[in-house]
Design a protein that fits this description.
Layout (H helix, E strand, L loop, with lengths): L9 E2 L4 E2 L3 H35 L11 H13 L7 H13 L3 H13 L7 H13 L3 H13 L7 H13 L3 H13 L7 H13 L3 H13 L13 E3 L1 H6 L5 E3 L15
Antiparallel strand pairs: 1-2, 3-4
Length: 269
């Protein structure tokens, strides 16, 4: 019974309470309110997406036949320099430049295939592009082929073959190759251990401002020798675009998962 003596109407034989008409209206309109709430939320989410899209700068409409400019566009899309990273579109720009004989674009295509960025991961395709780039004179591509040999990606694994390729680049003055070859001499992988030669290679690379070599040289001087296999190349696959763009000898590093080492443990650079 309601306060004031008014009896609440009942419904059914079980005595279930049936609320007066205004309450029934509220019950029936609840789904409508829920629908309105969903519409408002959807509108807000859409507004946020529009604002984010407006904040994202559009790619310039480039009609260029210059492979260097095509390569630069690919790098911007690949690394997300001012744009959202887009491996598929980076692949398109690199391919256009590679068809015109641009060596570093060929190397970058190899890296895309190695990472599976914008294209299916394919170590064999990566090797093919690295070889094309190396044939065009890219020492960075030679280094990457050496690393495929070192880790056994798409090729027969061979430390000695990796050292031979790195020696070619190191003799040509490539800081990355000097550092990596120094690490192999320090560890005795593919070459006879030679800590004096390792130190000399680290020094040559460090003199060019290559930061991994500076770190390796410091470790060699303070902690001795005997690097583990998994730590020989903490920065595996690289490209020279950042060095070329900034006049800095530190190469732009591309990380990749390293396969199982001789000890049976998987290492990640």
């Amino acid at each position: 019974m309601k306060p004031g003596g008014t009896r609440l109407p009942s419904s059914g034989s079980r005595g279930a309470v049936s609320f007066p008409f205004p309450y029934q209206i509220a019950v029936h309109e609840a789904p409508v309110f829920g629908l309105c709430r969903s519409i408002v939320v959807s509108l807000l989410v859409g507004a946020v997406k529009i604002c984010m899209a407006a904040a994202q700068p559009d790619l310039p409409d480039m009609n260029t036949r210059e492979p260097g400019e095509m390569y630069a566009m690919g790098v911007m899309l690949d690394e997300g320099a001012g744009f959202k990273p887009d491996g598929r579109r980076a692949f398109e720009w690199y391919t256009r430049a590679a068809k015109l004989g641009h060596a570093e674009s060929m190397n970058r295509l190899g890296l895309l295939y190695l990472r599976g960025s914008g294209v299916p991961r394919n170590a064999f395709a990566a090797l093919a592009w690295f070889r094309l780039a190396a044939a065009k004179g890219s020492l960075t591509a030679v280094n990457n082929i050496a690393l495929l040999r070192f880790y056994g990606f798409g090729v027969h694994q061979s430390y000695s073959a990796a050292a031979k390729l790195l020696r070619m680049s190191a003799n040509a003055g490539d800081a990355d190759a000097q550092n990596k070859l120094g690490a192999m001499y320090d560890s005795g992988l593919g070459v006879a251990p030679d800590h004096r030669r390792a130190k000399a290679l680290f020094l040559k690379s460090a003199a060019q401002g290559y930061s991994p070599a500076i770190l390796n040289l410091g470790r060699l001087l303070t902690q001795g020798t005997g690097t583990e296999t998994a730590d020989v190349f903490p920065y595996p696959f690289s490209d020279a675009s950042k060095a070329a763009a900034t006049h800095d000898s530190t190469a732009c590093i591309t990380y990749a998962v390293v396969p199982t080492s001789r000890s049976g443990t998987t290492s990640y650079p």
